[in-house]
Amino acid sequence: MHRNVRRGRLGWVRPARVVSDDERGLLVWVARGTPVVNEVSADGRGMRSMPFAEYVKLGAPTLRHGTWNGPGVLKLHRPGDPAHSVWWFRDDDGRFTGWYVNLERPAVRWSDEGGAAGVDVTDEDLDVQVAPDRTWNWKDEEEFLERLAIPEHYWVRDEAAVRAEGERVIKEIEAGMFPFDGTWTDFRPPAEWDIPGLTPGWDRRPLQ
Fold first, then answer.
1. Which of 185, 205, 202 is nearest to 86 (CA)?
2. CA–CA gap between residue 161 and residue 28 (Å, rounded)
3. Strand pairing of 117-121 and 123-130?
4. What local confidence, expressed as pLDDT, does residue 59 receive?
5. Which residues contact 157 (CB under 8 A, 6 or more apart)?
6. Could you tell me the end-to-end alpha-carbon distance of the chain, in angstroms, rounded to an integer?
7. Quick one: 2-175 is in which CATH superfamily?
8. Which mean pLDDT values do the consecutive 10-residue runs of the chain (208 residues) have?
9. What was the pLDDT predicted at 18?
């Protein structure tokens, strides 16, 4: 279970299949059609569909079940607890379209004996979008600044640290270092893989 945690609440849950778990890190695959859960406002709207101040004012967020409707995505959590993950995006035909550096608190792994297992992160909203030729741009900066202006409800603790992590990874991008060296850009999930579901225990209390 790949989960995003916001101030002790579940922001989203995405069942994922483990592709590999080795010295390069934990690599997971979220397939199109995967059942997911997302936090929504009291009136059923997602956080990104309105100003953050309005979302906070509505209060009493709930979880809504849905489906991952976009193309499948690979996500890598590298060893050493970095404050980001790297995602591989593709189009509807499965062709690689670019990387996405998701700036977040270091991942926390968990498992329940005989039940669910997963990884919890806290998405810190500011991201780096990377084209196949490794040109890059900051993403969601306006959203990041809007939420920083309401610190009593926001989960980002240190704006400078988030930006510094992004700048550190940008140096790797520009140098063409792993994982921005073409690794896994041609990944295709095996045809026999089914779509994982929400394992009992998916909603366990977050550790972050």
1. 185
2. 26
3. unpaired
4. 86
5. none
6. 15
7. FomD-like (2.40.380.10)
8. 95 97 97 97 93 93 95 96 96 95 96 88 97 98 96 95 98 98 96 94 86
9. 96
Q: Is 87 helix (H, G, I), strand (E, B) or coil?
A: strand
pLDDT attached to residue 71 = 95
Phi, psi of 88 (to 5 degrees): -110, 115
Strand, helix or coil for residue 123 = strand
Q: Are strands 117-121 and 2-6 parallel, antiparallel or unpaired?
A: parallel
User: Which helix (H) or strand (E) covers residue 3, if one does?
Assistant: strand 2-6
Cβ atoms of residues 35 and 145 within 8 Å: no
Answer yes or no: are the C-beta atoms of 53 and 151 closer than 8 Å: no
Q: What local confidence, expressed as pLDDT, does residue 207 receive?
A: 74
CA dist 163 → 81, 100, 143, 158, 170 (Å): 17, 15, 14, 9, 10
* Distance between CA atoms of residues 163 and 80, nearest Å: 19
* Predicted local confidence at residue 115, as pLDDT: 80
Whether the upstream peptide bond of residue 179 has omega within 30° of 0, thus cis, is yes
Residue 60 is predicted with a pLDDT of 87
